[in-house]
Design a protein that fits this description.
By secondary structure, the protein is an alpha+beta fold. The chain is built from six helices and 14 strands. 23% of the residues lie in helices and 25% in strands. The strands form three sheets. A six-stranded mixed beta sheet has the order 3-4-2-1-14-13. A six-stranded mixed beta sheet has the order 5-6-7-8-12-9. The chain binds one DNA strand of 18 nucleotides through strand 10. Keywords: Hydrolase, Magnesium, Manganese, Metal-binding.
Length: 263
DNA sequence: ATGGCCATTGAAAATGGA
């Protein structure tokens, strides 16, 4: 089975491209982030025509996550227990959706950006990661043999070598020790970030800004990851970052991260 | 060629992204 995660930066703009990619690569399950639409605006028909069922959560033009699967999609959960909200009035944003697909419990996650270190969004980001880590700890403890994947756009650069020039990020989000600690803490829940295990090379990126020729200059960031429970980790044969998907007109600024699983 | 922001809302300019 092949499962993947991809921040598509608007699913309405890129539905045909995403589904063509799913079919071409033979991907069974895709965790999608930044759908940027309400559930009723989601291009359900494009996915269904290709044989994918979809579970969606979306409130407006911001955020939005989904899971597409051609191996079943059951026990859908929109948001996680204790998921923090943001704003006044406080809203629990559509940033997490879970479903069981082909025997794997998959979560599609879009971690808050943080904006600036002194912005309320940054404190929200840390709260959000901490709450997810707490909940993930419960999931693993409750079902230690369950294949579980926490996949998505984590908006954290775990190591200096996960960005083209860490000096350019001095005083900015994504690289702060608190964010890195919050990201690393998922290992304490018994999870392993399997893209790192299989693709340890430095300067291996999943995101390139649209501006200033970032992609041709390879000024990228590694911020899309997949944490796996022991039962899933043992089944990961290989991990691929599909860098080619950043090429050409109409690309998302993120590329897919793919996990090939043993049956 | 992989090429100097993009998507959404709403109808100009603002918001968010990272």
């Amino acid at each position: 089975m092949r499962i993947a995660t991809w921040n598509v930066n608007s699913v309405r703009t890129r539905a045909e491209r995403v589904v063509a990619w799913l079919e071409r690569t033979g991907t069974d399950v895709l965790a999608i982030q930044e759908t940027k639409c309400k559930e009723e605006q989601f291009p359900h028909a494009v996915f269904e025509a290709a044989g994918y069922e979809v579970a969606v959560v979306g409130l407006n033009q911001w955020n939005g996550v989904a899971i597409a699967s051609r191996v079943g999609i059951d026990d859908v959960e929109r948001g996680f227990l204790g998921q923090p909200g943001f704003g006044d009035p406080e809203v629990v944003e559509p940033r997490a959706i879970g479903a069981t697909c082909g025997g794997v419990r998959v979560w599609s996650l879009y971690v808050p950006n943080g904006r600036e270190l002194d912005h309320p969004h940054y404190a929200y980001k840390l709260r959000w990661l901490e709450a997810l880590q707490r909940e993930a700890t419960e999931w693993v403890a409750a079902s230690p043999d369950l294949p579980l994947a926490l996949m998505g756009d984590w908006n954290v650069v775990p190591f200096d070598t996960d960005v083209w020039d860490v000096a350019a990020f001095a005083g900015k989000t994504h690289v702060s020790p608190a964010e890195r600690d919050a990201f690393a803490a998922f290992a304490d829940a018994g999870l392993t970030e399997v893209s790192r295990e299989h693709l340890p090379a430095e300067n291996t990126y999943t995101y390139w800004d649209y501006q200033q020729l970032a992609f041709p200059k390879n000024k990228g960031m590694r911020i899309d990851f997949a944490y796996a429970s022991p039962a899933l980790r043992a089944r990961v044969d290989s991990v691929t970052i599909d860098r080619d998907e950043r090429k050409g007109k109409g690309a998302s600024d993120h590329v897919p991260v793919i996990l090939d699983l043993a049956d």
